[in-house]
Design a protein that fits this description.
Blueprint (H helix, E strand, L loop, with lengths): L2 H32 L11 E5 L5 H9 L4 E4 L2 H8 L2 H6 L4 E4 L8 H5 L4 E7 L2 H15 L6 E6 L16 H11 L3 E7 L14 H17 L7 E3 L6 H6 L4 E4 L1 H4 L29 H8 L7
Parallel strand pairs: 1-2, 1-8, 2-3, 3-4, 4-5, 5-6, 6-7
Amino acid sequence: MSSSLLARMWKAAMSEEVGKALQSVVDRVNQAAVRRPKTLPVVPPRLVAVSKTKPPEMVVEAYRQGHRNFGENYVNELVDKASDPLILASCPEIRWHFIGHLQKNNVNKLLGVPNLFLVETVDSAKLADRVNSSWQRLRGASTQRLKVMVQLNTSGEQNKHGLPPEDTVDTVQHILSKCSALDFLGLMTIGRYGYDLNLGPNPDFQMLSSRRQELCDSLKLPLEQVELSMGMSTDFEHAIEVGSTNVRVGSVIFGNRDYPNSATNTPAPSPAPSPEKTGKSVSEEAAKKMQHLTVSKP
């Protein structure tokens, strides 16, 4: 069998697999949104397909299925993938989300990414200032503002990045008043990994929701205009049911990740666990449990 035939067969199989998985997740997102209490803002959830470690071909296949929002955790990988000739040629309307820890020395590199849509992990006023000034400089006379979210460390874990929840109002106020090049979109959390939903609604999700309420009350912001980014492959349905408007799903769409062993190809270690864990997927039993977990208040 020729290599070209094998390549075509692989592409056809990959296309079908990615397409089916993506449609399944989209259906589950929509069903979870229907189950949300009527007390929550009616905001259709945005599905961010996390393509970390996956080849550009898989991004293109998901794009061909109609998907537009994609997320990456590492600046270098996002720069490489967003600049890949195949993606540039095939995905003109792609919207990239950066969902990993952002160091100040990588800000310029990140903001140069083609079709950068949203930076979800601004975790301090100083980082917001750096992103603001860099965006102004890189975009020149353009009046387009960069969408950002403020990341909170809702679990209080020392190895997690994110703003202390009690600093939420002051930090957002700083962005709104001092960072004219930024468009504040909402709040984001990674949360404690592996929370058992049998114990009740995820406390990290409840914390993020309550901080949004406090923020909106303090700064007189409409609740529906402040998004919540929470929920990943193992708990995105529950997250939507309790108010998430932006979920970050990777392995359920693209399959488990194969991390390279080579030190030259391995992303620099971060003290924070990745928002997507290798080899983790939602079991049918867990999914059923999540379908019935809701809260009545944001």
